[in-house]
Amino acid sequence: MVRSPIQTSEGKTHQARELDALVIGAGFSGLYQLLCLRDRLGLSVQVLEAGAGVGGTWYWNRYPGARCDSESHSYCYSFSPELTQEWEWSERYPGPPEILRYLNHVADRFDLKRDIRFNTRVTAAHYDETANRWRVSTEAGETFTTQFLITAVGCLSSANVPNIPGLDAFEGQWYHTGQWPHEDVDFRGKRVGLVGTGSTGIQAAPVIAETAAHLVVFQRTANYSVPARNAPLTTEFKRYIKENAEEIRQVMHSTVNGHPFRIVDRSALETPPKERQALYEAAWATGGLRFRATFRDLLTDNAANETAADFIRAKIREIVKDPETADILSDFDHPYAAKRPPIDTDYFETFNRDNVKLVDVRATPIEEITPRGIRTRDAEYPLDIIVFATGFDGMTGSLLRMDIRGHDGLSLARAWAAGPRNYLGLQVAGFPNMFTVTGPGSPSVLCNMPVAIEQHVEWITDCIAYMRANGLERIEATDESMDEWVAQVNAAAEATVLPQAKHSWYLGANIPGKPRVFMPYAGGMAHYRKICDDVAARNYEGFTLSAARVSDAANKRFN
Ligand code: NAP
Question: Are strands 343-344 and 226-227 parallel, antiparallel or unpaired?
Fold first, then answer.
């Protein structure tokens, strides 16, 4: 490792670590990116991670009921057949402790932790054009310089605590699910308010209700949910996973969402109603995201989608005993799965408990948080604990909270003032040698994340290997390729029902003032993989690659 003197803006001189690549984040993406660049390409790599351990999203999201909605045998890396064979999942859907055990196992197995700096939050990354290097600064005042900067910051890492007047004066405790304390929160004997009914709130409500004296769920938008049907994995299924690992991988790589099952090639509309009902019943009994795969047209045809919506509405009315509560829970304002479709364990059943109440805050909005609880237009609800399951500044939040500056000091925040724009979700014009793993404009959150992550990490690794093999030092997306890609991302979204969910975080609609742009690429993971492969095969078409050498300026002082 080389060190060179750096002049900070405060005028102090200190040593900067010089790297080939710096990776921000030690979740699924950062760990694999480190492994690929360090062990396959032989680069000097440093990972900087804000948390005290590996895990990314799973390090922070430890709220009660937290569980992955991808099936465990697919929610893992597939790059190493040995790793696949040696690891054994215990349940159909893993919770944070098991996922963290897995990621720690991976980090230890591949000796990754020695190149990860924990408790280190990156605050800024500035590109120096002359040196063709990024200067990366941390909250603690350290500086690193690197040729390649790879953001592996996750899509859902920037918690959204709503700006409700009075929170500061609340006399009880409050928590955001995405920043959950590492100690247990004791709900026993407590009056708890839960704000938000997305995937998180739907998972948390039943578990909180089990111990709290009273739970009030504040729902703004009714949400669809399908039973997860979580269960321990049988010995037989565990054997199936090992014996069919390669085939399962092939399925994940060839499907739209990267899950280990295919969408059935059958139209909901063309299926006779009785048969359709039976198929939905069977899917409901199977549970999980497989429900969405019952028919091929659920996400592309509103009338087809309505058949799924009707089925779920009827299920809610069947489960929830109080008709008024059932009406509020099933008063959907968007097509099924236009928002990320939650899967649950006894969510709707929870509203049959005597200690649970549902408040419709679309009809009676929250006006303020008082020292004693939450006050809506109609009533005050006394609370000891408020849990905000109010989501994240998704996809762009974690990137934009760092001060990232490319050419001529152009900030990423300014480049994205009207919404994120990039090429393939991987690179932004004006920000050379910076790659965003599962950034906006890539399938990411519409896909089983590890599949999307492995594809991005491997593409970035191959790209850097190509550059090294060809004496190239700099890669940058062109403006034209970015325009073209943004148009493709919009067209892919418009071909589906997804943009019809007006309050969705996919659109940035959950964050006041955030531009309304549909962020993930909805054209399907398999199709996206092919596009990226073709771009690489055509010598990185759409990017400008140059042989600009890292000059001596790399060692001179930055201003
Ligand atoms: P979310 O989907 O954005 O849901 C946030 C909830 O909070 C919504 O019900 C929203 O209502 C409500 N809300 C926000 N601000 C509010 C306010 N001021 N007043 C009242 N209600 C408010 O967030 P999330 O549930 O944390 O899920 C985010 C994503 O994380 C998911 O889509 C999924 O991708 C991922 N996730 C995955 C899993 C899993 O793997 N099982 C689990 C949890 C989360 P509106 O709908 O009206 O805006």
Answer: parallel
